[in-house]
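Kindly draft a sequence, keeping tokens residue-aligned:
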Amino acid sequence: THLLRYNVDVELTATKRVGFHKYTFNQPENSAVVIDLQNGGCWDSPTKAYIAKTGEKTIEGYRYSSGWANDQRVFFVAEFSQPITSLDVMVDRGEAVSDKGEGKIVYARANVDAKEPLYVKVALSPTSIENAKLNMQTELPGWDFEGTIAQADQAWEKALAKIDMESSCEKTKKIFYTALYHTMIAPSEFCDVNGDYYGADHQMHKGEGFVNYTTMSCWDTYRSAHPLMSLIHPEMMKDMMQAFVTIYKQQGRLPIWHLMGCETECMVGNPGVIIVADGLNKGYIEDKETAFEALKNSVMLDERGQDLRKQYGFIPYDKMNESVANDMEYAIADGAVALAAQKLGKTEDYEYFFKRSRSYMNFFDKETTFMRGRGTKGEFHVPFNPFASTHREDDYCEGNAWQYTF
């Protein structure tokens, strides 16, 4: 429960695709819900938005935007527990309209006479308003707020119970299960209840027999979160790997940092390669040849500094910022591809990628015992401070020589 500054008590719960709101207006004469389709986080701004009152208690619309995800699309349907007396809409240039509006800037005020608590169900879809309705009908057809809270609690209890941790210290247990909860926030399902999804080719796809995923912050997760998933979420792994390979088919390479069907290009290296290679080696991929094709083609592209590794055998600092970070990440990816090739009996590929994975050795300075940037002539980057870290402007990425050496 949270009290808004407008003297409104707010309680929120959800199913996978439907948010369930409860508003208690302590001053009912001012009861209204403002729907803001303009503002978004992470430098996200709308490119097109639409909202309309479609029934006595229903609103629907969509919001297209560009930001971290450069072509994000969200469709929605909202059902109110009480009649919407009027929908006041403001579109571009402050133009005020009633009941519906479309433009780049859209705000709407749904006015209600909420002498009793107001409940609002909001279903989301990445593909269409119709599928948002289907998600609502499937996941939350009724109005049992307390029951929905209980179901959400049960879902998290089931997920967190996958690891039974015993300790006499309650604080330690709380820390452990909070951390375990954090590992389950992403990747997140990115499809409707019928399997329809928005692809990396920016097309709407009908259900293809797998659960699609997004929020793949692969550089953050490949080291430990994804290996943990492979141990405690085996039932998710087949779909997860299919989602990665499908992204490869649609955009020509495995994901680096995928969000809402869009490649954000965020962070360094080729972390999606490492995740898929691990899944292949652990037996979670049926079509191994297509998966290996995705691995190999992704690490052979001449982009994001991979062409420099082919030319110089490593990435020189005088050719690219974050050279040590990028090259060492590419080296890990090459090592992962080598292991996958070995698993599949592809000896030539194994030898090539194993050898290329040793590129990181170029950065080790025996004199200082740190990994350091190296130039095209083989010289180490000076001046050198192993504690220094300047984001995107030095040889490392969100770290320093100490961390990259370990």
Notes: The CA atoms of residues 13 and 149 lie 6 Å apart. The mean pLDDT is 95.
